[in-house]
Design goal:
There is one protein chain. This protein is an all-alpha fold. The chain is built from seven helices and no strands. The chain folds into two domains: 65 residues, 434 Repressor (Amino-terminal Domain); 36 residues. The longest helix is centred in the last third of the chain and has 20 residues. It is elongated. The chain starts with a helix and ends with a helix.
Length: 111
Amino acid sequence: MIGDRIHKIRRHRGLSMAELGERAGFAKSYVSSIERQKQTNPSIHFIEQVAKVLDVSVNYLISGETSADDQPLDEGWVQLVREAMESGLSKQQFREYLEFNIWKDQNKKKE
């Protein structure tokens, strides 16, 4: 059940219902009603926002299943992303940097 998964992950992350609700843009009472399964049909918007806050996939919240794409980033990647954000690098700039390096590597292989 979605409510059970949200509850377990939220507790594991050390968040209160109020914190989760605030970060996801929903009232604590709504989060509570989902977790206690008083509300059994949350909106996809709610699921998407909660998944972002809890750093899990929407698929995991809905089905409880994970795939290789659902695995969390290791600490090295998290630190790299933090440093990029703190340096003021935009998502677009970071994406362009990655694309350039992929292109460069592919061209090296052709030589």
